[in-house]
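The material for today's practical consists of a large collection of protein records. There is nothing in a record beyond a sequence line and a structure line. As an example, a complete record with its sequence and its structure tokens follows:
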Amino acid sequence: MSKLAGKVAVVTGASKGIGAAIAKSLASEGASVIVNYASSKTGADAVVETITAAGGKAVAVGGDVSKAAEAKGLIDAAIQNFGRLDILVNNSGVYEFAPIEGVTEEHFHRIFNINVLGLLLVTQAAVPHLGEGASIINIGSVASSVTPPDTTVYSGTKGAVDAITGVLSKELGPRRIRVNSINPGMVETEGVHTAGFLNSDFAKATVAQTPLGRIGQGHDIATVAAFLASDDSNWLTGEIIRAGGGLH
């Protein structure tokens, strides 16, 4: 039997990249999935089509996680479409690097609003619907421990995700709701291609510091998420799992 049969998941920022890989992985294990997108409906629809073509269940739902009403709408969509909620993957995130001289109020609020406030708002909306055995999976980054130059704001948001994961594991533990974080290293995604990172000196230096000697792929993160969503990890909470090929 599939590990997640009968369970329902919400994956934020799932129209591409790591989020899309996680949505497909959870669905392949039997979960019904809400595939959230902020702007790329086409991408989310393609993820849903892939899932349904393989016999799974998924619905694309638009929403900006940094707005409380829209964050709540994602959770409402899970209940309306599938009748319950068991798994929340807080994957929505943006990155934009700048030296300290280049940090602006706009830069700060844009990144913190999505990466931190969005995670809190979706989790807040989800908690009333989560029962014993539910799993919240936050997507952090090895940036919180590697702390690369020119990433004060981005790495700051991921440090916040680490702390929030620990706090919520204690807060929700008595309700038998588990909260863990996956902290990827560099992963080959559409965003990495668009930003021109793939063949950059930054990417080469990252690979050089990675013991397993390559950039990650979406499935490298998705398989960890499927594990954390399943009962196989029912004794894990408050954990920060670095999934970066040894980079930390």
Q: What stands out?
A: The two ends are 36 Å apart (CA to CA).
